[in-house]
């Protein structure tokens, strides 16, 4: 249905022990290389962005935008990191982290208030400190009509009901990423395995609020099941992006 450049990559294991054949280089880059990507909806080409782009905002959610305005592009509000975060059984888990409003790391050896050795906290395999990124967080009581929203914030900054459900601060920020048969991805929070990342009232339209919704089944056009194609920044304007103007 869509024309897109593809790179052969087989047996990509995502969302479980069963190998899923995927040929989309953007999905591989998002999950394996941790490159920032746009999360573009399969139905109308709109993309996810935090409702508030500033780093000091931790109580706002996510919305679907259908135009890429200069302010959003400048703040990297259209970009997300799908960051590996361990395993749940054999299922790899991920954080959905915004590239907007990320706090740069302190220089190596800089004093911190967290005690000895804290200057090395968060270092990657290459020894470079990682920036603090705000993560998409779900409510402990979701999905309910009064608590099905999401927040974008640091683990210690989001509201109490957005903190770890089972004692770990990150519980409500961990997601299973599942590759769909048509080459998109969908997000399932580990605290609510019968739910997926969707939209308020299942409306896939400009400024729709991202919510958790029960996974009742359906087709991929966005009525119930919402799937996203991760697109690399230099690919965002390829022909199949039906971004409204």
What key attributes describe this structure?
two-stranded antiparallel ribbon; 245 residues; four-stranded antiparallel β-sheet; mainly beta; disordered C terminus; 2 helices
Explain what this protein looks like in three dimensions.
This protein has 245 residues and is mainly beta. The chain has 2 helices and 14 strands. The protein has helices at 25-33, 70-74, and strands at 12-13, 19-20, 38-41, 47-50, 62-65, 80-88, 91-98, 135-138, 150-153, 175-179, 185-189, 195-199, 210-214, 228-231. The protein has a 4-stranded antiparallel β-sheet with strand order 6-7-10-11, covered by helices on one side. Strands 1-2 form a two-stranded antiparallel sheet.
List the helices and strands and how they pair.
Blueprint: E1 12-13, E2 19-20, H1 25-33, E3 38-41, E4 47-50, E5 62-65, H2 70-74, E6 80-88, E7 91-98, E8 135-138, E9 150-153, E10 175-179, E11 185-189, E12 195-199, E13 210-214, E14 228-231
Antiparallel strand pairs: 1-2, 3-14, 4-5, 6-7, 7-10, 8-9, 10-11, 12-13
Helix residue percentage = under 10%
Total DSSP helices? 2
Rounded to the nearest angstrom, the radius of gyration is 17 Å
Shape: globular
H and E string: EEHEEEHEEEEEEEEE
The overall strand count is 14
Low-pLDDT parts are 1-22, 111-124, 219-223, 238-245
Average of pLDDT:
74
Per DSSP, what share of the residues sits in E-state strands of 2 or more residues?
Answer: 25-35%
Largest sheet: 4 strands, antiparallel
- Order the strands across the largest sheet as they lie in space: 6-7-10-11
How far apart are the termini? 22 Å
Query: What class do helices, strands and sheet pairing give?
Result: mainly beta
